[in-house]
Amino acid sequence: MKYIRIYLATITVLIFLVGCNHKSVEFQDEPVKKDFGPNLLDCKIDFSAKVKPLTPATLPQNKTVTISTADWFDVGNELFESGGPLTSYGNTLIQNFYKLGNSHTSMTGTTNPPGSPYAEAAYYFAKPMMTKVYDDTILEAEGKVVAASKQVSIPLSDLEKYPPPEIVLTRMIQGLNQFKEKLIAQGKDSIVDSITSQIDSKFIVDLDSMKNSSTMNPRIPLGLSMRSLDASLSKLSELSDFDRQHLLTQVRLGEAMTEEKDAITNSDGALNYLVNVWQSKYMRKNFPDTLKNIFSGLSDAQILALATSNSSQVVPANQWGGIKDETDTLILPDRSITALYLKNNGLVLDPAIWQAMQDRVKELNDLLKHPDFSYFARIVANMPSDKIEDQRFALVNAWLAISARLGMPADIKEVFNRFSEDDLSLIGKNNSVELAARLDLSLIKYRYGLIDALDKMGVEAIKKLSDTAVSAATRERLDLALIPIARDFSSQVSNTLLPILEKSREDSEKVASSSYRDFGRYYLGKLIFGINNLTKGDSNSEAHDNTILQKTPLPLIEYAHINFAFQNGSWVQAENSPETSPQVLGLSLAMLNHRVDQNPSNGVALEYQQISKLLAIAGYHDLQGNLVESFETSMDSGHARDLFDVAHYDPDKFVFAVPDRVRIKNQFKMDQSSRSNPHVSVEGQMELLYGLAKALHYFKPWKTSRFDSGLGAIRIDESKTMIPFGRSDYFILSLALGTYILENIPVKMLGQFLFVDISSFQEVCDIIF
């Protein structure tokens, strides 16, 4: 309070410095004029009787007539200030002005595009608050997610060791529904609603899709089932990235094998397919080049030694007894699978050869210390492990397709074991020229023997064998993976949702913008413009709501002149130039208190018109945070394009003022043409200062006024403590604009001041005191 009074005193001193000595001025009450002849083109109005509405019919019968809005408002103001019964006449006069259809620009409750200066300016100030509210809501939702995940567990103890995937997935769906119920029980809000909606529309749907595709119905072609399972896994966000990739590796291996299997038409094709399976053609494509280089040029025995370290036992003797008779190799770790393939004898190389390979062994171990290669080894493993020795077994198993070799028919497996990889590749190809070039009749002999055996088995038998192997391998991989996933499923759901929520905080500005547009047009439309058929947060589009809002405009900026034309025996309103003046702006601001007194039911709309007018004069930041074109223009040569920043104005550097002619564009912004060689008169500045001084009185924050029960009383549901329309904000804005006018006078207008009627200053002094 003290500092405000000091500031007002400072303004008063400044007025004294430029010629307004309060002590020497005598303020006299002038009698109310009953005849305002010259003010309205000799249109005389008798105020001793009821004031007749000002209409074109009362105008002289000339071709065209132009009425000064400043004169019109000056009459209204004098009537308002006179008090008594004439006040209502002044109100009628002003109301009739706004009833003219082309006397002013209009504003609406739209927020995108902004329908008023406030609708555009408010977001700049509301954005930080809305962003914080959104962030706080997310943090609260994260706490609810963690709490719900701790209350949910999926029962697995009653299931067999490796239950069918569809049973486990069914229980996971049940657990997800339980998680949703626990989350809702902690209290609903917009974020929780979004989460539960996503659980219903995506998470549960994805799990159900995976459950259906994992059954691998024998009546559906395997290739189609594998592609369906691939699609389900790819979008299943409840799985960790690693679990998803681990499963997809097996599924896509099965897809590649099934695609080539489906292309088999004869025994030659079947033999080539079996060789490709034996040599892990489909898996090796996925290996990084660095790993390919390590295995390149090595025999199968040398590659096996990389895993077994050429030791006499692959697994300890006490474990071998439980492994050696296992027929379902797909449920075993890679070390155990290799032990079965070698009958637990890992001594596959001559010690000298093994010794010569130590550089290759070290290179492989060093690679597996790198996260990327370790990740790959775990992805291809039957049972992922963090131990380097286990990862070596996984890579060797994948490179040599040991699991697939164990499942081959015994007679084919016996023949394939006889040959090197290069020779076996020749046998697999139907190329007699290349076989003959080797001068090794045994290759031709074995090839024809294999073809003969496959002819007897039949191509369909090979296809069926492949389908069985691929289907079993895929389902077993799902079995092995889903149990630990289900056991930790509630935590995984939490771990899935928390990053989504955290990432959504990155969109807080975008969400704040969207919320402002949605809620802003609802509140402005309902509380300011009186439109009731809007629903907050409904499904109606922005365009739909904007159509409704644009049908109920409110006046904003009054034109400087109103034109009438005499047509067909009567006066009609003619087109007006879209421009205003500081006199009109000042007089309009000055009438606020009286207009609200006379029209209390429209008080909110009238107050909104005036604060929007103040913002249009002062300028503000738009939705992107950029300064807009205010009604203030630079009076310094070469700075016509500079924009006025009310918060950082320094007249010692550049002087800004509202020009005498303000050409309006887009309803409430000044056209660039008004900035070119602007004329700024002291008379206009004094009228504007007069209006700003009146606004100061109306918005005084230390005194209760109608504003407190009008615009100042508005609150929004989303933040009941926030004050959308703070009286002190507009008091300070009016004070700043008035101060700048006074600061401009000694800097740019002192020479003109001597020719100005001192009464303008007297009125300002009177208001301030």
Descriptive overview:
- With 769 residues, the protein is mostly helical.
- Helices cover 59% and strands 5% of the residues.
- The chain has a 3-stranded antiparallel β-sheet.
- The radius of gyration is 43 Å and the shape is elongated.
- Residues 1-57 and 750-762 have low confidence and may be disordered.
Subunit arrangement of the protein = single chain
**What order do the strands of the largest sheet run in, or round the barrel if closed?**
1-4-5
Q: Residue ranges: pLDDT <50 for 5 or more in a row?
A: 1-57, 750-762
Q: From the alpha-carbon coordinates, what is the Rg to the nearest angstrom?
A: 43 Å
Number of helical elements: 34
Largest sheet: 3 strands, antiparallel
Quick take:
The protein has 769 residues and is mainly alpha-helical.
Layout of strands and helices, then pairs:
Elements: H1 2-17, E1 64-68, H2 69-82, H3 86-99, E2 104-107, H4 117-149, H5 165-185, H6 190-214, H7 222-234, H8 241-262, H9 267-278, H10 281-284, H11 289-295, H12 300-308, H13 317-320, H14 334-342, H15 351-356, H16 358-368, H17 371-380, H18 388-400, H19 402-406, H20 410-416, H21 421-428, H22 432-437, H23 441-457, H24 459-487, H25 489-504, H26 508-528, H27 542-549, E3 554-558, E4 561-567, E5 570-573, E6 579-580, H28 582-590, H29 592-598, H30 603-618, E7 633-634, E8 656-657, E9 662-665, E10 669-670, H31 682-698, H32 706-709, H33 727-753, H34 759-768
Antiparallel strand pairs: 1-4, 2-3, 4-5, 6-9, 7-8, 9-10
Helix pairs in contact: 2-3, 2-28, 4-5, 4-25, 4-26, 5-6, 5-24, 6-7, 7-8, 8-17, 8-24, 9-21, 9-23, 12-18, 14-18, 17-18, 21-23, 26-27, 28-31, 29-30, 30-33, 31-33, 31-34
